[in-house]
Amino acid sequence: MVDTMALLPTFIRPTRMKRTPSRPAGPPVDDEVLLDAPDHRLGPALVAAGSGEYRAAAELLAATRAAAEWENRDRYTRRLAGFARSRSEWFEAWRRAAPDDPDGLLVAAQLAVDRAWPSPARSELLREVNPLITAAARGDARDPVPWRLALDHARGSLAGHRYFEELWEAAVRRAPHHYGCHVAALRYLAASWHGSHRECFDFADLAAQDAPADSLVQALPARAALGYLTDGCGPEVPRERLDAAADRAIALSGRFPAADPWPAEIRNKLTYVLLRLGRREDARAQLRLIGPYATSFPWDRVSEDPLGHFLRLREELRTAAVRTGRTGLAPAPQGPRSDHRGHVVAGDH
């Protein structure tokens, strides 16, 4: 086994994010809660794409590249690729009109990885994606997002540790605290040493300690906790380490405005972790901060209806404040337990 600690030093180093403005909101009723709602910049691009027009999407990604908004660029790329997977006309028009556009190349690479991932022949199909990722990486030498894609690609194609380390070093040279690259590395560690959750926690904790207080990397230990709680294998992680990971993510969540789509992904995952740890009051606090912005992941790990599941949990937590009852989730775990229920989450590879 390769020494995990050999990977860790380069896994940590200052990139601060720009955030979209939020609007104040009271507790939303069920009909107001949205699943995977786009922010005020992505929404118009998706609407335009729905009518077959690609220019708004191209301009959005070009703006993130010009301003080095790498976290936004990563999120928008994923969402645009997901939309192109079901509605491809606008994207095909973009590729025909500007085949060398670095932003179009990036979406094309993400789309190709997404299409290959669910296949039993994933490794073979991913090998064919290499030229697309290489072309996207050449589009802008500063951009870490193609390197996040390369890290995902390496995991899916079962690449060796030395090759992965080379990719990782290239990624962190571009953006030392890019959250997407850190999540890709965490997933690689988990996949390479299945059940070795302590190594994942070591990496996540060191990365968070080195990151700015407002970096999304502060939520990486909670992401490691989520992996542990849904994995179902490996030795027990001490409860205090799980709580410390959740506490770090709570502190990060408190730095963002309430009812804002930008931190919704972090808050939804944190809420899941808090519920699995039996910290219901902390989970209620996160639900108030989430407002109307539910996300498919992680709720699609436990239900085919993630929005319905989120709403039921929210209601159960409200009523649990006045009764000692059951929230529908497991109590604080004594060890890892799987909640995959046998189905693959396509959006979380």
Q: What does this 3D model show about the protein?
A:
The chain has helices at residues 4-7, 42-50, 55-66, 70-86, 89-97, 102-116, 122-127, 130-139, 145-156, 161-174, 179-192, 197-210, 220-231, 239-253, 264-276, 280-290, 296-299, 306-320; strands spanning 34-35, 293-294. It has 18 helices and 2 strands. It has a two-stranded parallel sheet. Helix 6 (102-116) packs antiparallel against helix 8 (130-139). The chain has 2 domains: 1-37 and 194-349, no CATH class; 39-177, no CATH class. It is mainly alpha-helical. Mean pLDDT is 88; it is low at 1-26 and 330-347.
Short characterization:
With 349 residues, this protein is mainly α. The protein is built from 18 helices and 2 strands.
Helicity level? 55-70%
Averaged pLDDT? 88
Q: How can the largest sheet be summarized?
A: 2 strands, parallel
Look at the helices and sheets and give the structural class. mainly alpha
Tally the helices: what do you get?
18
Element pattern in H and E? HEHHHHHHHHHHHHHHHEHH
The geometry reads as globular
Radius of gyration: 20 Å
Strand runs, count: 2
| Count of individual domains | 2
Spatial separation of the terminal alpha carbons: 24 Å
Low-confidence stretches: 1-26, 330-347
Sheet with most strands: strand arrangement: 1-2
Strand residue content:
under 5%
